[in-house]
Design brief:
Elements lengths: L2 E5 L12 E2 L15 H18 L10 E3 L5 E4 L1 H6 L6 E5 L2 E2 L3 H10 L6 E7 L2 E7 L5 H15 L3 H15 L8 H9 L7 H21 L5 H18 L3 H16 L4 E5 L8 E8 L6 E6 L5 E4 L8 E9 L2 E2 L6 E3 L7
Antiparallel strand pairs: 1-9, 2-3, 3-4, 5-6, 5-7, 7-8, 9-12, 10-11, 10-13, 13-14, 13-15
Helix pairs in contact: 1-4, 4-5, 5-6, 6-7, 7-8, 7-9, 8-9
Length: 341
Amino acid sequence: MKIRARYRCGCLLLAGCAALTACAPSAPPTVSTSESQAGVKALAQDALSRRDRLMPEPYPCGTGWTETPTGYVVAVSSWAEQAGLRPGDRIVTVGGVQVSGDQERTQAYRRVPAGGPFVVGVIRRNQSATVSLPCRYQPDLFGAERRTLDAASRGDWDGCLVAAREARRLAGFTAYANVIWEQSCLRAKNPSMTSPEGAEFAGRSFEAAQLLLRDSRFVPGGTADAQGAVRQIADDLKRSGFPGYASDLEAQLQAALATLPRLQLTWADNSTNEESFVVERKTGQVGTYQHVATLPPNTTTYVDMSVEEGVTYCYRIRAVNAAGRSGYTNEGCALPKTPTP
């Protein structure tokens, strides 16, 4: 069994964006029209509990961006952008201390001294960079974000909407993470789709899906993970009497998928009794192999849609059954490329 990695122009898909702002709660999943007010309240209660545990008070220096749990920046305020931070940057250090998960970053942000300096290290297009940010204390934004969750957790939908809109204004930028609670609380009010509130809910749902698509493209594999949520919103909008929004979202999704890089692997199936194939990948020649997929028997091709342009990836594959595992294939390495129109 041999492996051959090659380019195949088409869709690379960007990683799932469960976006969260560094100074805001984790964004909840999109709430479909079939979910109850109790479901929205439960999501808000969980998010509020997590927020109070990890961020009981405003950061000494507020963050002017939205980041994913893996540290990818997906939206930035004008002042953070002027300081040099860019969507697509992955935050790997805060104040010179390495951080990996969202809890480590949250703790590091809390340790930034009042007044600064506020310095983050990022990986940008596989290169290291340092960004020195201005220190902005943001208690009003902190309060509005918490009031949003508190109101939603109690079923105060009007209070949730007021606080969510205030938080969005104070943040100074718009991202999926700072519109999803507004969309969820609008949904929880259960408006008639023929009423002005119903039209407002449809418009906010459309905006949330657009932002999810936009933000997800900055994370390797994000669009692939986001497409299910985008299609769910499109289906909900179509069923609710807004087919124009639905068809527009589907077109935007297809356009996003068609412009992203990917790598296709092919290999010869020389075994006769495999139960699955296991695909492993590492970044560059010196990285560590990690599991990326388990495939059905008789599979001879795999498209990796969680790759990033400008980064070399290496792969190996082996067959597995109840008796054990085969040896690995030869290593195949390739550099993804963005497809041309």
